[in-house]
Amino acid sequence: MISYEKFEGLFIPTVTPFDEQLAIDHKSLERLCEYQLGVDGVSGLVSCARIGEGTVLGAEEKFEVFEVMGKAARAAGKLHIATIAPQSTAEAIRMLDRLATMPVDAVMVFPPLLFCWGKVGGDLKVRFWEDLNRATKIPLVLFQIPVPNYYYDAETVNRIAALPNIVAYKEASFSLELYTETCRQLKASGRKMRVLTGNDRFVGKSYELGGVGALIGMANLAVDRWAALDKAGRSGNFEQAIAIQNELHELSHIVFAEPIVEAVSRIKSILVDEGHIACAKTRPPQMGIDSAEVERVLQSYRALRAEA
């Protein structure tokens, strides 16, 4: 029987460190995982999500990362959620079959590109998840990409949540209205699927509306404060959760300044400065940030941490 309660709390979509030649830096990845998993209040790690540069990793490279992060999570007694981005049902099932043999506790599935090809109704999306649900026993995590063309509407999410293998939902629409309506429908239907917010603009408020955790890229930084926010939110202290969110508001501006695509480079630059990884390189087509921006980012982040 699936334990839905395990999929609550703070989950970090960990960056994937590279060396100067842009190969995966296994030692840095192991060191970073050990650090993040060692912070009190972290429920688990997520591999190869957007912040983990899953979009620029090769197929076999992803399985390397899954193995390293999965072993680290198992050693720490915490969860590991692997991320896949299949373009067909058959591809998704092949990947799930392989992941079922690895140190993976759940799989987060990015929606296929076809989901945003014109007006795609809920029936097609639900059938995709029905097929995956039948094909595997591994717990599955639904992912809401913050692009309106890709959105799962609230009714479709509610239908997918009825499937027994769907344990959690990363809701990252950045739409307070959609988030609120989705949580309302899930509650009204008595769904067990856990809602994990990815909405850094209103993460504190997310708990009051029905979220029971966060799966958020900025948690690579100031991990202790994100863990404190999550603890406050899940304990019902929404005022404190929102206060910590306000404290971390500047972090959003630091990391997600335009161009947003370079957010990973900014996170990595800070992690290098903190000694958690050895190199801040990101893979093309990302261009990375120049030395002047690195210095601005580091100064802003140090000031933020000094005030905490």
Written description of the protein model:
The longest helix is centred in the N-terminal third of the chain and has 18 residues, at 59-76. α3 runs parallel beside α4 (122-135), α4 packs parallel to α5 (154-161) and α7 runs antiparallel to α9 (238-247). Strands 7-6-5-4-3-2-1-8 form an 8-stranded parallel sheet. It contains 12 helices and 8 strands. Helix content is 46%, strand content 13%. It is globular, with a radius of gyration of 18 Å. It has a single domain, classed as TIM Barrel (Alpha-Beta Barrel), CATH 3.20.20.70. It is α/β, with parallel strands linked by helices.
Name the features.
8 strands; TIM Barrel; 8-stranded parallel β-sheet; globular; 12 helices; 308 residues; alpha/beta; single chain
Structural class, by secondary structure, is: alpha/beta
Rg for CA atoms: 18 Å
Strand order of the largest sheet: 7-6-5-4-3-2-1-8
Question: How many structurally independent domains?
Answer: 1
